[in-house]
Each structure stands twice: as structure tokens, then as C-alpha cells.
Amino acid sequence: MRKLFRILLFLFPAILRADPPILTDDPDSPKQNGWEIFAGAVAEKRDRVLLMETPSVEIEYGVLDSLQITFQQAWITRASEHQGTQNGIGDSLAGVKWRFLDQDTSGVSVSVYPQFSFNDSNRSVNLGLVTKGWQMILPVEVQRKFGGTILMSEFGYTWREQSSNGLLYGLAVEQEINEKFSLLAELHGESAIRFLEGVLVFDLGFRWQTSEHVALIGSAGRALYEGSRSAPDFIGYLGLQFAY
Predict the structure, then answer these.
(1) Are the C-beta atoms of 8 and 46 separated by less than 8 Å?
(2) Alpha-carbon span 45 to 85, nearest angstrom
(3) 20 to 30 A from 191, CA-CA: which of 31, 37, 147, 202?
(4) Residue 154 near residue 25, CB atoms below 8 Å
(5) pTM for this one?
């Protein structure tokens, strides 16, 4: 059973890495000396196993207008019929996003976002809450704005110390309904090399700017395609975004 949990986490490691509320990241970053903090809860259900990250925290700091540093951390709880409830600290993730093209000057925004995650707790590894070893992610994000519509795409490669390397990819759209509320939709995938044994997830989300510095954000979705292995019956996020 523990081996199965490790396989599930290998197939869908994007939960912690994603830029809330959806899984596909974008080239945007805080302004120089600005902060963005995401605090929320992630829930994922598959094969009668519920995996939650509560809280899930992501901190972004703008070193320059086009350069941000990121840190992510979460507390993981897993509930199953066979093993009851287990919990522990998740992996730490640190990253640097560099937006080297801006739509204002180049017609499109493009960034590269190397990220490195590593184990914080041998106990979490032994319980199968996280996979053993480090993980290096190198995605590229592309974005184009058309008035109140934003199109985003992401493609990247993942190196893993203890398991096979993989690919990540996503396509998303955000539509502004009014100046405070927007809707999001995406297709996001994870797979082994050559797109084998992949998982493709469809997500719907929202962003509601409740005040100048705070937004309520959320999403919900499920797998459309799961290849030869298990995939999420449900995946969701609900949280707050603080910007200063």
C-alpha cells in the first residue's frame, strides 16, 4: 500500500508547485520589493484516498519587476480506509522566476522558472507522504493578454533523484468578468518522458478581489485522462492571496 501512495505522488507532484488557484503557472511576478503570499488548502481524492495540504503556503518576493524568489511549504494529511489518518510536513520548494520578455515591449510575456524541492522530514518519507529525494523543475511560461482575456501556457522538464524524470504542461485562460472578479479554466498534465503514463486534469477556478490587498481564490477539477495509472477523482484549492 505504501508503494502505491508513492506512485500516486509521483504522478501528480504539481499540487505544491502550482501558482494558486490553478496548476498552470504564468510569467507574472510581484513588483520590485513587493510581496505576494498565498495561504490556502488543497484537497485531492483518488482511489478512496484523501490527500490534503492544510495549510499550503507560498511566499513570493519581487527582487526586481521581472525577477521573483519563491518559497513553498505545506502540512500534509492523508486519510484512507486501510491506514487511517497520517500527517507530516511536506517538501520545501524554492524557486526563481525570471521574466525575460514583456508584452508591453515584445508583444508577449515569457518567463523561465527553475524550482528545487527537497525533503524536510524522514518521517514524511517513511510514511509515503512525500517521495524520497530532491526534485528539480525547469518550466517555461508564456502569456498573452487580449483586453480582459489572458491566455497562459507552460511546458517544463522535471528531474528526480530517486525516480524517473518527467514532463509538465498546461494551457489556461482567465476571463475578467468585472474589475474585481474573474474566471479561470485550464488543462494541466504530468507525464513520464515521451508523454507516457500521463495524467491530464481539467480545472475551473475564480479570483475575487475582496479588497485592495486581498483576493479570495479557488478552483476545482478532476482528471480527464489517466493513462495506465490512477488519477484524481477530485482536486481543489481554496485560499487567500495577499499582495503588498
Answers:
(1) yes
(2) 14
(3) 37
(4) yes
(5) 0.89
CB 157 within 8 A of CB 169: no
- Cell digits of residue 227: 493513462
Q: Within 10 A of 108 (CB to CB), how many other CB atoms are there?
A: 14
From the list 120, 102, 123, the residue with the least C-alpha distance to 111 is: 102
What would the pLDDT profile of 17-43 be if each residue is shown by its tens digit? 457 899 999 999 999 999 999 999 999
> Chain-centre distance of CA 52, in angstroms?
14
Residues near 73 by beta carbon (within 8 Å), at least 6 away in sequence: 56, 57, 89, 90, 92, 93, 120
150: Cα separation from own chain's centroid: 18
For residue 201, count CB atoms less than 10 angstroms from its CB and return exposed for 0-12, middle for 13-18, buried for 19 or more: buried
In degrees, rounded to 5, the angle at the alpha carbon of residue 96 between the alpha carbons of residues 67 and 156 is 115
